[in-house]
Specification:
Structural class: alpha+beta
Number of helices: 6
CATH topology of the largest domain: Alpha-Beta Plaits
Shape: globular
CATH class of the largest domain: Alpha Beta
Radius of gyration: 20 Å
Number of strands: 10
Low-confidence stretches: 265-269
CATH architecture of the largest domain: 2-Layer Sandwich
Strand content: 25-35%
Helix content: 10-25%
Oligomer: single chain
Length: 269
C-alpha cells in the first residue's frame, strides 16, 4: 500500500530534505521515526529537495507499507510519529493513495515564499532576511512580469546542477507587504515584505537567486529591464547574489488529484 504524508518542518537544524552521509536531514529523521514506530525499514520519497536551512509549511512525501494499522488508525500513527519526531518536524496528515501516485513526479506546481525586513526586527531575524535599504515595491513587481511564463532560468540556477533542462514555467511572481508573523499594522508596514513565486518546477537555488536579483532592482541599482537581460544571458554571474536560506519557505504543493489528499475518517478498532 502507498501512503502520502503531509508535513511541515523548520529547516534550521537540517542539511536540507534529502539524506546525506554524516549529515542530519528531514528525510532521515522521518524514516528513523517510522522505523521506531512500525519496526519496518521504510524509505520515503519527498516532493522535492529543499536546501540547507530552508523550511516547509506544506510538504508531501510518500512511502510504501503493508502495515494495516496505518489504514485502521491513522490518527494514532500521526500522534505517535509526532511524539517521536523532534519539535522541528510535524506530521499533519497521512492517507492512502493509489499505488502509482508519486509525491515528486505527480506535483503540478510548487509555491515558495521569501520574507524580508528592511528595519531591524529581533522577532523576525530567525525567519526573515534583514535587508536595510529602502525598496521600490512597484519596480520589483514590474520586473516580476519578466519571470512569468515558460523560459530558461539558467542565470538564476545553481551552477553545475544535475538537471536535464533549465526550462521552468512560472505562473505567479509578486511582492506584497507582509511579515512572517502578524502585526497590528501589517498591511501598512512596508518595512516587512514577502515574495511569492509559483512554478511547475524549480531549479537549485532559483528562488534565492531570483530574490537577490529583484532586490537589486528594488534598491535602484539596476533598471526593471535588467532582469530580461540577465535571463537572456543564461549566465549565473550576470544575476544578483543569492539571499540567505533562513527566510525561504516551501509554502504549498499542488497535485492533479487533490481530492485524494483528504483523508476520510475511518472507524478505529
Amino acid at each position: 500500500m502507498r501512503f502520502f504524508i503531509l508535513l511541515s518542518y523548520d529547516g534550521s537544524p537540517y542539511f536540507g530534505w534529502q539524506k546525506q552521509p554524516n549529515k542530519i536531514s528531514v528525510q532521515q529523521v522521518i524514516e528513523d521515526a517510522l522505523y521506531t514506530l512500525l519496526r519496518e525499514k521504510i524509505e520515503i520519497t519527498g516532493a522535492g529537495r529543499t536546501d540547507t536551512g530552508v523550511h516547509a509549511q506544506k510538504y508531501y512525501a510518500h512511502f510504501d507499507s503493508n502495515n494495516n494499522i496505518i489504514i485502521k488508525n491513522p490518527d494514532f500513527i500521526i500522534y505517535k510519529l509526532n511524539a517521536i519526531l523532534p519539535k522541528s518536524v510535524q506530521i499533519i496528515n497521512i492517507f492512502d493513495v493509489p499505488s502509482e501516485s508519486h509525491a515528486r513526479f505527480d506535483a503540478t506546481s510548487r509555491t515558495y515564499k521569501y520574507y524580508i525586513n528592511t528595519v531591524k526586527d529581533p522577532f523576525a531575524s530567525q525567519y526573515s532576511y534583514f535587508y536595510p535599504y529602502p525598496l521600490d515595491i512597484e519596480s520589483m513587481n514590474q520586473a516580476c512580469q519578466t519571470l512569468i511564463g515558460e523560459r530558461d532560468f539558467t542565470s538564476l540556477a545553481k551552477l553545475h546542477a544535475d538537471t536535464k533542462t533549465n526550462i521552468c514555467k512560472v505562473t505567479t511572481a509578486k511582492w506584497e507587504v507582509g511579515a512572517f508573523y502578524s502585526t497590528e499594522n501589517s498591511e501598512n508596514d512596508k518595512t516587512h515584505l514577502v515574495f511569492t513565486i509559483s512554478a511547475n518546477r524549480f531549479l537549485r537555488n532559483m528562488v534565492r537567486a531570483t530574490v537577490g536579483t529583484l532586490l537589486e532592482i528594488g534598491r535602484g541599482k539596476f533598471p526593471i529591464e535588467w532582469l530580461e537581460t540577465v535571463l537572456n544571458e543564461k549566465n549565473r554571474s550576470s544575476a544578483g547574489n543569492s539571499v540567505p536560506s533562513n527566510a525561504l519557505f516551501l509554502n504549498d504543493i499542488a497535485y492533479p488529484y487533490s481530492h485524494l489528499l483528504v483523508r476520510k475518517k475511518i472507524d478505529q478498532l
